[in-house]
Structures are given as C-alpha cells and as structure tokens.
Specification:
The complex is a heterodimer of chains A (145) and B (246). Chain A is α/β, with parallel strands linked by helices and 145 residues long. Chain A contains 4 helices and 7 strands. Chain A has one domain: 3-Layer(aba) Sandwich (Rossmann fold). In chain A, α1 crosses α2. Chain B is α/β, with parallel strands linked by helices and 246 residues long. Helices cover 37% and strands 24% of the residues of chain B. Chain B is built from 9 helices and 10 strands. In chain B, the strands form 2 sheets. A 5-stranded mixed β-sheet of chain B has the order 3-2-1-4-5, sandwiched between helices. Chain B starts with a strand and ends with a helix. Chains A and B meet through α3 of A and α2 and α9 of B.
Chain lengths: 145, 246
Amino acid sequence: MKKLKKRIIRIKSEEETRALGFLIAKDIEAGDVIALLGDLGTGKTALTRYIAKGLGVTENINSPTFTIVKEYRSGRLPLYHYDVYKLGDGNDLLDIGAEEYLEGDGVCIIEWADIVADVLPDDAIIIKLEYGDKESERIVTIERR
Amino acid sequence: MLILAIETTGKHASTAVIDSDGKYFCAESTNEMSHLREIIDLSDKALSNAGKSKKDLSHVAVSIGPGSFTGIRIGIATAATLGQMLNIPCVGVSSLEAMSTGISCDERYKSCELIVPMINARRHQIYAGVWQNGTKLPLKKLNEDRQYMIEEMTKLLSSEYKDKICLTGDGIDAYEEILKKEPGNYILADENIRYQSAKNIAMLAAIKVKAGEEVSYNNLTPDYMRLTEAEQRLREGTLSSRIKNL
Ligand SMILES: Nc1ncnc2c1ncn2[C@@H]1O[C@H](COP(=O)(O)OP(=O)(O)OP(=O)(O)O)[C@@H](O)[C@H]1O
Ligand SMILES: [Mg+2]
C-alpha cells in the first residue's frame, strides 16, 4: 500500500480558497476523483468553482443539487461536478450512470462524497473543509495516495 | 426447454438461445456499451435465428456479474421483465464462471490445468476466480471469486499453483504489462474467446435448470462483487476507511 500524503492548510479568506483551487487545478489529471467533505456552507461549491476556473472552464459553476451532476467541457480537462447530498448511498449514484464518468476521461469533483464513498475509487483525493474560528477561515485537509 | 440467455456485463452485449438438443443461436452487438439500446433487438434476433418466438421460451437466463455495474443492472432488469411478462422462471449465472466454462470447451486450452478469468475493475483491481479445467460441468472452483488486486492474484498464482494456467477476460488487456513482468506459467486466451459471451451463460443456465437452480423474476440478484460499505470501512486502504480515519 502506498503511503498516504496528508496536508492540513489553514485558510484565512476566500481569496486563499481561490489560490488553493488554482493550485489543485494545475495538479490534477484525467481520471482523478476529488471527494469533497464538509458541512453545509463550508465552501465545497466555492472551491469547485475555483478549481474549474483554474482548469479554464468558462461557464458559471452552480451547485448541481437538483441535477446531481453537471458537465463542463470548456477547460483543460472535462469536469464532472456532483452534489450527492440528496442521494441515499452509492447505489443511487450508479443508478444515474456515474460509473462511466468515474472511470473516464475527465475529473470528477463530488460534494458530500462520504455518502457515496462505497462506489468511489479507493485512490480518490480527499479534501475536507471545516470552519475556522473567524467567519472566512477554513481548515482544509487534503489526503491523497 | 428453450432458454434465452443475456450477457451485458462486458463491453459488447450478447444474447443466445439454447434448445433441448443443446443447439445454440447467438446474437452479438458490434457496438460498445450500447446495452440498453440493443438488448431487446438482440434477444429477438437470437430467437429468430432459432426460428422461435418469445412465447416458446421456458426460461430466461442472465449474467448477474461481476462486470460493468450499469450493464449488470440492464441485464437483470431485462431478464426480470421478460420473466414476469412471459411468466417463466429465471436463472442467474456468474459472468466469471461462464467465462471459465467457455474456455474449458475450447480445444486450444486443453493442456491448461487451471482457468483464471479476470474482469478489469480498474486501478489495479480485478474481479477474478480460479477454476479447475475439465470436461465435466460445472467446473470446480479452487479459489474464491472476488475482487483482487492484480498483483495479489499474480502472487497467488505463482505461489499456490504450479500448473499451466489459462488467463482470460479483459483484465488481460488492462494489465498486460504487469502480467508480462510476472514469470507465470500462463497462456492468454485468444481475443475471439476472451470476453463475456451469452453462449456461455446459456450453457451454464441449461445445467442449472437441470439441477433445479431457477428463481422467480423478483429473486434475480446482481453480484457486483463489491464490498459493502460496512466492510469497506473496516478494510485498510478503501476510501470509506480513509474518510473514517482522516
Ligand atoms: N475561505 C472561504 N472559502 C470558501 N468559501 C468561503 C470562504 N469564506 C467565506 N466563504 C463563503 O462561504 C460560502 C460557501 O458556500 P458554498 O455553497 O461554496 O458551500 P458548500 O459547502 O458548497 O455548501 P453546500 O453544503 O450547501 O453545498 C460562500 O458564500 C462563500 O462566499
Ligand atoms: Mg455546494
């Protein structure tokens, strides 16, 4: 088993979230899956928006709560943005045909990934967002294999 | 007896009809992953090749996996619908056992003692099992069929089994480089027999029917061969356990 690489980053402002999103965008490759964890409003959609910007996506990124997944093809890599808050478990994700995207040509970013973790690849990049002490502070934990 | 068999767990969907004389009538899609669109047409095609129609069927058999999750769902839903509509029993068949059975019937692999079908489960994982080659069906299973790491399987094969082994399935294509590096006593199944095929499902289904192993349409269950969420949380390295331990 490869060793896990874990980093904890303290973010002071949304501007820093943006910078982090751009860094992540540079680093990711086709086939990567990012499992986003974190309570309501911690900034999962915000971070996804900045990663998308970093990938060169030109469309607006909105939360796909109702459609579960949205696809963006204007960037360096195809981006599949999921919000699985409404799903019960991994089977529900398979029911909407996610399997082909997960093994596919693009990057999958999944909000509330813990709900569907049982069908996501074991080597997904985990990014967990938590509130800090001040309003715009966040504690970001990134773990990858 | 007239069984329609459906196999949608691999890249190409296929169907086969087997009659009481043991004659096969097959149909296969040339397109990849167009199971949902084509499965009904393919079923009709195999039946018309046999000169029969749906109402002549005594059973409908289906590959219950492992393989493509979406494909498994389509196959089971189609078989269950037919079973219900025609009021006939269903037969669930393992995709891996069917692949082994196909190899065991092929003269080219007679010299192999063992058959190991491996279906690509991505990221160094395969669904696989070890069967003993032979002429008597069903074949004897020597090692649990489950999800393995490809490296785990090659290690198992080289340490536990000294005999000549026939490898089959799309896991060969996915992990060719790894297999080449491993000094195993392997023969790779030819591409014309390497992949899931409804004919093998039909063959095993006929045996199962004789053994009374049929189920009602609402008791067909998929075998994704995936660990449950609870099992995943307990096993090191899975995403669920990584999240738990974060
Ligand atoms: N450092 C920060 N990083 C990200 N967002 C921040 C930060 N500081 C403040 N915010 C604000 O927090 C909010 C985060 O909302 P967002 O919709 O991205 O959260 P979410 O985790 O996706 O929520 P949900 O659980 O509803 O999907 C935004 O209004 C954003 O402007
Ligand atoms: Mg959101």
